[in-house]
Structure formats: structure tokens, C-alpha cells
Amino acid sequence: MYRIKTYDKLSQAGLSVFDRERYAIADDMQHPDSILVRSTPLHGESFGDELLAIVRVGAGFNTIPVEEMTKRGVAVFNCPGGNANAVKEMTIAAMIMMMRRGLAAMDWMRSLPDEEIDYGGQIEKGKSRFTGPEIMGKTIGIVGVGAIGGRMAMACDALGMKVLGYDPFLGHSRLQELRQYADFRSDLKEMLAECDVVTVHIPLNEENEGFIGAEEIAAMKDGAYLINYARGLVVDNDAVCEALDSGKLRGFATDFPTVRELKRPDVFATPHLASGSPEAEDNCSTMAARQTIDYLENGNITNSVNLPNVSFARAEGDRITVIHDNKVGMLGMMTDRVVRHGLNIENLVNKGRGPVAYTIMDFNGKVPAELADDLAAIDGVTRVRVIE
Hints:
The protein is about 30% helix and about 20% strand. By secondary structure, it is α/β, with parallel strands linked by helices. β1, α1 and β2 form a beta-alpha-beta unit. It is elongated and about 90 Å long. The protein is built from 14 helices and 16 strands. It has 3 domains: about 1-85 and about 275-305, Rossmann fold; about 85-270, Rossmann fold; about 310-380, 2-Layer Sandwich (Alpha-Beta Plaits). α3 (about 85-100) crosses α6. The chain has helices at about 10-15, 65-70, 85-100, 100-110, 120-125, 145-160, 170-180, 190, 215-220, 235-245, 260, 280-300, 330-340, 370-375, and strands at about 1-5, 25, 35, 55, 75, 140-145, 160-165, 185, 195-200, 225-230, 250-255, 265-270, 320-325, 345-355, 355-360, 380-385.
């Protein structure tokens, strides 16, 4: 029986995917084979040697010690796209409310004494301070045109905005697919200079921390609007406040406000709310469950952030999976061990992802335990599994 440890409250839509005759699931599970986590940071946590996988029930994975897990041969997964629609909807809502000053107007209305709530008097006199521009006809720049950014491009195009995109990592086929909704720019600062609104949809990692900083904001139009519904640290919040003070930025919408930003009337702030719809939680938990099952039972990898994606149908017998260094001669050393045991490989796939590679070998019959030991003894092999 496989053991699953859960962190946080997870949607039953995903947990119900697991066959409870084969999977034991609990938030206090000892020696888990896999971990499902939504928001709890795992940096500094201790893990047993039994751990095979960590699955982030969401898109971002900065709360998981990916580098450490890679060294230990633990696959780390996320669920890209599972919450994309929820984030898209919230980003558009934030953009409109920020630009039309909807929240400030609502707060003002609530502050009025009962006797002054007169649509022919005080309200008509005071409402002019809250007027703001429409989004139709404005130019929006999308930084990061992945699962969320792609949906933003389609939605903003449908709303009558001119859409520009910047994403140097976007694949050719996806780029061609999105060209009907957005014009793409290869230079970030040149794109920023064209935009009335800029929205950021990139992951948080070492390279992306402070990705939109003082230099990037300086390249933007005077009086532009900035939106961050990605991760807090991808934007330099001090630079944002300085730009708001100077008038360089007219408004800022964020799902990750700092204390300084919360005090500002020109900041539309929400409490990390964008991905928190019931539908998104169901989608992500279901995706996480299916990825976990396929990895534990078949060794197939889908949506891993530290290992290459590898997936193919199994042969009749046992399957061996190997996580190892992606170096010359590794595959030959492994197949040599197989030959020494008098076995024939029915199917084999080997894929690399940077310095790490993943190999699957299928056999028609049983695999002796000694073969797994021999493979594990090869210098550079991190993890060997025999899946019956």
C-alpha cells in the first residue's frame, strides 16, 4: 500500500481519485511515499528515505526545496493550468477595479452618514473624484505568457484591448497559437514603453526575483498601471511605491501587498486570493492525484519541475526507473548491468533535463533485486525503483 501525507486542506475531488485499497492518506502519515501540499512551506522539513515524490497542488513551487529533492532523487511536481482561469478572472477584476477606482468609491460610499446618501446631492457632488479610464482600447503588456498569461491574452483581446506579450521561453507552437490574440516583443523594455497596463505572470525563482524593478518601471509609460498576481517578490515593491509617489505609476494591483502598500489608496490589494476558487482547487487536486498515481504505479512523469517528462505504456513484466546524472556513458553502464543478469530490455526511454536524467526500462518478466542494487551502485545514480 502506498502512503500519502497531505499538508493543508485539499479538495475531496482529488482525494477521491485515490483507490483507498491501495492508498493510505493522512495529514499525520509517517514515512510517506508521496506528499501532497498546497501552501505550507516545506523548506527546513525533514523527509525519510522512503519519499519518492512531492506534488504541489497548484502552480508555484517556491515553497518546496526543489534542489535538495533533486539531489535525493525525489520527483517534484506541480499542477500548471489548474488554477489558470481563476487567476485570469481575478486579474481582470483587479485591473478594472483599480483603473475605475471601484474600491475607493465603495469605501467612500460606506463612509457617508445615512442622511447624506442622496443621489441628487452629496453623492453627485463627490463621485467625480473616483472616475477612471476604461480598459477598451488600452494596450496591455503581459510578462509571461504561459497557462495564465495565455488566457489573459485571449480575454483581454476579447475585451477590446491591444495585447502585447513578452516570454522568451514560450515554445514555437504555443507562440503561433497565441499570435491571433497578441503581438509578441523580444525586448522587455521596448514592450513596457508601449503599454498602458502591465501584468506579470511568471514563476518566482532566483532569476525572477525583482524581475520588474526600478529600471523596468522607468521604461514604462508615465501614468501606467502595474499588476502582480504572480508572486510577491517578482516585483520590487519599494520601487513600486516610489513610482506611485512620483506619479510614474498611476496604480498598482497585487495579490501580495506589503504593509507599506496596504496604506495607499492607489493600490488595489487582495490577500493571495486569485487561485482560491472552488473550481481551481478541484482542478489542481485532481491533477495532483492523477500525477501521483501515475508516478508511483508506473514511474511516468508529467509536470515535473526537476525531472524530464517521460510517459509511455508498460510492457507485461517489471519496470525499472532510474534517476541519474545526465552524463556521457551513463546509459551504457546501466544496460551493461542488465546484460550481466541475462535480461533483455523490452522498452527503454531516456530523457535529460539539465544535469539530471531519467530512464525507464521495461522487461517481459521479473527483475531480480540484485539488478536494482547493481544499478544503484553506479556513480551518479541517485534513485532506482523496481515497479512490479
